Amino acid sequence: MTWLNTLLFGILPYVAFFGFFLITILRYRTRTFTYSSLSSQFLENRLHFWAVVPFHYGILTVLAGHIGAWLLPHQILWWNTDPVRLIALEVTGLASGLLTLVGAGAAIWRRLTVRSVRSVTSLADWIVCCLLMIQIVTGIEIAMRYPWGSSWYASVAAPYFWSVARFNPQIDLIAVMPLLVKIHVVNAYLTIGYFPFTRLVHVLVVPNPYLWRKAQVTRWYSSPQKVN
Fold this sequence. Notes:
single chain; mainly alpha; Fumarate Reductase Cytochrome B subunit
């Protein structure tokens, strides 16, 4: 299985990130107006609120935790030397994952049950929904089956990701991890690689210009009334 580990953890990361940057740039330069979430909120708002709010709060917290542990692994290990702090961190991570699951589940349910929303849901939307659900569910399962994940993430996964960033992937670090962890990592790469083809690109162009651009005036015109 050495060749498979090399493919999944030594080659796939670079294919995913190369595709991410290449397609993201090409799409922005050639199809700028598609850089939007193409929100279906105007079609249905109640379920949209209960899906988007928990999903965004949950996923942002989870991503912040992953990135923070990657950038500051030694600080995370120091934090976890106190059992109370360790438990607090683990509970926060699990709660954020569950919140993300609730939001993603509500979003999928909305697209399945609301006809107007289902009609504007593309194949790419369903694919990204599947990728996100696999990532969320495996992440929660890892947190529940392999406790103290923040510590082994900082001591094993973070060095592996740093080795990938340095173009010298230490595949042995991740090859010894449980199958569930490997699925989680591989699916993360697949999600990154597929990212530029989806509505998720809107996170790259958050409306910062609204903070400094001039006010935009919008006028609505109705068709002229017929005079009898």
